[in-house]
Design a protein that fits this description.
This protein is mainly alpha-helical. It has one domain (24-234): Orthogonal Bundle (MetI-like fold), CATH 1.10.3720.10. It has 10 helices and no strands. The protein is globular, with a radius of gyration of 21 Å. The chain starts with a helix and ends with a helix.
């Protein structure tokens, strides 16, 4: 118990004194996850909107597929990305393995189905509410999707935050494609696993504190956005 209390005090010192190694790991984690979420939103929002607002053959199958892909096993995604960018893979010539770019790609594969599936549900609910108005005004599919995306912006922001929460906590896929290279690909989750196995509980706890703080901030932002959306809905 005494050792744990000492490690916790050292962890707090690392956090409040902005230890350079700690800040480097946190900074890389945020850069990788934010980039992955941004790209996932650029892909997932239009896909989700199209699946939620347009009527076409196989629409139900696509919705089922989107929901199924939300539960992709991270280690399987990591393995597939690894095989794709390994020297024997089709894109091995890019030499992206064990770089932050490979970690971003793995997170994009994981997060995009989440963003697409959740945004599909948001847009489908809105479209059922506005469909008749769109028909009466002769609004085309493209303009309708643009209007729905704008009207559901607060809900879609919560979708993006959910994707970020998934990305920042990811360890299985990123450690396969990025490893855990100091000053290059070491992010919070992989560093926590490494430092715990090495017995450096202070740094592991410090990273855990930061990760929990980020998770709480994301959840707080989601709650705030939902409250804002509700106020706009009743305004």
């Amino acid at each position: 118990m005494h050792e744990f209390a000492q490690a916790f005090r050292l962890a707090l010192d690392l956090v409040f004194n902005a230890n350079p190694d700690l800040m480097e790991i946190v900074g890389l984690s945020l850069r990788v996850s934010l980039t992955a979420v941004a790209v996932s939103c650029l892909i997932g929002f239009p896909l989700g909107a199209a699946a939620g607002a347009w009527q076409f053959p196989g629409r139900g199958t696509i919705a089922v597929l989107m929901n199924a892909l939300m539960s992709l096993p991270p280690v399987v995604v990591g393995l597939m990305v690894y095989l794709t960018f390994s020297r024997a893979g089709p894109f091995g010539w890019l030499e992206l393995l064990y770089t932050p770019t490979a970690m971003i790609i793995a997170q994009i594969v994981l997060v995009t189905p989440i963003v697409a599936a959740l945004s599909r549900q948001v847009i489908e609910d809105l479209h059922s509410e506005y469909a008749e108005q769109f028909r009466s005004l002769c609004v085309g599919p493209g303009r309708a999707i643009g209007a729905l995306l704008w009207d559901g912006r607060f809900s879609l922001l919560t979708v993006a935050l959910a994707g970020f929460g998934r990305a920042i906590a990811e360890v299985g896929a990123v450690i396969i494609v990025g490893g855990n290279i100091d000053h290059l690909t070491r992010v919070m989750t992989t560093a926590i696993a490494l430092e715990t196995s090495r017995g450096d509980l202070a740094l592991a706890l410090a990273l855990g504190i930061v990760l929990i703080a980020i998770a709480l901030s994301v959840n707080g932002a989601v709650m705030a956005l939902r409250g804002t959306a509700a106020r706009f809905a009743y305004a």
